[in-house]
Amino acid sequence: MSEFLRSYQTVIWFGVVAVLLASLLLGLASLVRPVKPNREKQLAYESGVDPVGDGWVQSQIRYYVFALLFVIFDVEAVFIFPWATQLERYAGFGLVEMGIFVFVLLLGLVYAWRKGVLRWI
Amino acid sequence: MVAQNIFFAIFAVIMVVGALRVVTSNNVVHAALWLVTVLAGAAGQYILLSAEFVAVTQVLVYIGAVMVLFLFGTMLTRARLGEETDLNNKTWILGIPVALLLFGTMSYALIDSFGDEKLPEDATVVSTQVISDQIFGPYLIPFWALSFVLLAATIGAIVLARKD
Q1: What residues of chain A lie within 8 A of the CB of B140, using their CB?
Q2: Rounded distance, CA B27 to CA A84, Å?
């Protein structure tokens, strides 16, 4: 096993501890707690008021635009990470390179803003 | 190498089970969530291949962002959400030859190009710095072209989603 993969053992142990701790605490709690379900307790929590209708509804198309903008700026973030590791070496030239990339993507955000899809009615 | 093989097998089993549940699940939202396990397994495989940056990108973009888009996409459709409906189409039998053809083509391509070549015992780790030098060096123009692709996707989605 290479040095690189050996360093990922930490990640595995972290995951194992997380799963074990959660199942141990929840299992222990289920052993000692009283179980008396009734209708009020089984209701979905909706900020303290009784929920209306079904949880499975069609969502508005408005959310879709936000999800798509999120995907695009997530992809942008992915490219900023490698750039950030070499930021000092690239100096001003790197700033211009990334500036052009971000500027072109910002045009999309400005378009969304001007078309009013970012406004929440 | 033994530990690598064991983890490869674990990830592979998780991915196959997840992929089977994606196509057999009768609830579209559950199918989308099973896809998360497949994508996470792929991220694990990238780590085993010492491709750290690709693995992180897989988690960040695919599990983080594309799955959100998938879920909103399915919630926008008129598919009956949350109900156990029979999602299987009557033409599913036609899918079998297509799947076999795809499997055959991919196996042929892999065996033809790699044969019994083995991965090096101590694969060199390509650091994020090296990837950065590639993007901001020889691949600068494709990188900028990519920003225009993303811009086109943004504007296209806004045009499609607007009511007027």
Answers
A1: 97
A2: 41
Give me the phi and psi of A120, to 5 degrees please: -105, 115
Q: What is the ipTM of this complex?
A: 0.75
Residues A23, A42: Cα–Cα separation, whole Å: 22
Instruction: Domain B1-83+106-123: give its CATH code.
Output: 1.20.120.1200
Nearest Cα of chain B lies from the Cα of A18 at a distance, in angstroms, of: 17
Q: Residue-wise pLDDT tens for chain B (164 aa)? A: 788 889 899 999 999 999 999 888 888 888 889 999 999 999 999 988 888 899 999 999 999 888 988 888 887 776 666 666 666 677 778 888 999 999 999 999 999 998 888 777 666 777 888 888 888 888 989 999 999 999 998 898 888 877 65
Establish if A120 touches chain B: CB-CB under 8 angstroms.
no
A121 falls within a domain? no
**Nearest CA to CA, how far is A1 from chain B (Å)?**
6
pTM as predicted: 0.80
Three-point CA angle B22, A43, B86, nearest 5°: 25
- Please report residues of B whose CB lies closer than 8 A to that of A65: 157-158, 161
